[in-house]
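Q: Protein A?
A:
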Amino acid sequence: MRTFTGGTFVAVTFLALTGLASSTVAADPVADFYRGKSISMVIATAPGGDYDLRARLISRHMGRHIPGNPTIVPRNMPGGVGIQAANYMATVAAQDGTALHAIMQSMSTHQALGGAGAEYDTRKFFWIGNTTDTPNVINSWHTTGIRTIQDVMTRELVVGAPGQATNSVYYPKALNDLVGTKFKIVSGYPGGNPVNLAMERGEVGGRGSNSWASWKATKPDWLREKKIFILVQIALKRNPELPDVPTMIELAKTDEDKAVMRFLSADIPVSRAYVTTPGVPADRVNALRRAFDATMKDPQFIAEAAKLNMDMSPSTGEEAQKFAESIANTPSQILARAKTILDIK
């Protein structure tokens, strides 16, 4: 039988414990990296809207599912209707997994159309997950008397739009050209909330685009009191909650027109998605994606989302990545026709 002296036993024990500690540390480098750190959640809008409320909700819950349990700190960065924040993520933010971004839905489409001012490439972001595939919608205000998209075929409807090169401009412009509607677009509002105020004041008679989920979460009283009417939905198929509202694709008359409308609707599956920067190590990307997935199933998160009347139909980061890449890689002939219709030089 082999025996150990006291000194030998202590030395062997020390080495064994040291080896165990080393292996434990090596087993979870992601936790070691995030422990004691904070993650910035960059939000491309001003406080108060759907993008902001969702990002803050996720920030309150996702950290406990990330190894090391970092704190997630929301940071609003409005500007350029999403372009400023996307550019920041591509060119300034640390590429180590300590920056998340509630990316504006239209960023992939904007890039594909030539992307004035865009310094980002959505294909190079790592997509962490998406909270909903809610459709976008165009609405009228109740005082206009316009209730359906057919009404806009015969009567002018003035709609407000944030920015200049945004979905709120593109959707009504495409419908005018391809379907024969009579939308008059007043663009340049700094955000969605100012458009809502303009509707209330009677400056415009509708909004060029907002998500259905956003209306439900931020203005449930308007829906309940029938202050707004949903005219058309932008989606690949009709949302079950809007069974009588046509999609833009349905309204298009030819296959070529439908292809353009399908391109403009292609970002709906990433309506409220979250990305991190290029260059993040693969193990951290995977940890962030799995933490997002776990958050979507977290009872505390689900309960708070329900309390906020927030629509949730999540998809994984891997799924969101595929949608973003497919939009950016849209065939050139479809992009050329879309640019002509939307008057993009």
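Q: Protein B?
A:
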Amino acid sequence: MGDYKNILIVNLGGIGDLLLSTPALRSLKDKYPHSRICLLVVRRVVELAEDLTYIDEIVVFRLKGVTSLLANIVTLWNLRKRHFDLAVNMRTMVSALSALKMRFLLSFLNPTSKAGRNTEGRGSFFDASIPEPYRGQMHEMEYDITLVEKIGAVVGSRKIDFVIKGASVDKVNALLRKHGISENDFVVAVHPGGMPSRRWGVAHFAQLIAEIDKKRKAVFVITGSKEEGRLTQAIIRGCPQARVLSMAGKLGINELGALLKRCSLFITNDTGPMHIAAVLGIPMCALFGGGDIVRFDPRVISSRAEVLRVQKACAPCEKFYCPHAQCLQEISVGMVLEAVLRLLPF
């Protein structure tokens, strides 16, 4: 492969996707230390990307909003003028349409070389590629690593980069103190949001909180985005006897990590915060629905994770909404409570 000086990484996934790609990105910079690496990402992961010292520049690709199309045209035009030596797509092309979009994007940017995952044979436009089935056959981190090895990198460490800042710890501690939570309190974090098709039921979360509270008096902190505030309030109304606090919309990515580090247990859907907790080694129960368990199993990273799932023929799937979600509805409160007790015998 060439001695690349100007590299564009296209990584349009979420928090977990970017986290799991950090060993590959770090190794790519180690291989080409004099290169300038530009990372094209969606807005919700910018905070995480800013902490990666081996990334020289971050450019945002907008997915929503009335001005997104015009903004993206300007962004891509400016990137085209950069004349990249290499452009790398690090995500799965889940459909023929997504492959067509990536082909158009890279053709417009016109880098000297293009690399990526040849998902189900859809990546014939890449100059360098690795084979990838839609249904994962290895962990997502390994696909990223295999790809950068294809373009010359040597991956010596699979350490995932996520460092909690002192300022984040200070903010979280101040928020907890404000709500009367002391250092001696047993704190359980709960993350009920994420993609709608990947959410366990509100009533289930409320019942689980109530059952845990019967066995061990705890403070329950519900996390999520500002948009998930109604979801958290519905859970709080469902378990009035428990001590529950909502922090939906109040924490950035690094601050969320600081909160999880303070917790004795984390209960979550298949989300980006699930991967943060796995990296930090927090005792965790992960509720898996239609996600690809082979690609995103947190137990690959953490020995302190329990995964609850009911295998269905339709999984994995990419549905944003699912009218049935039997894969999640068949996970009972009792099943999750048993997993909690395996992690933390009361």
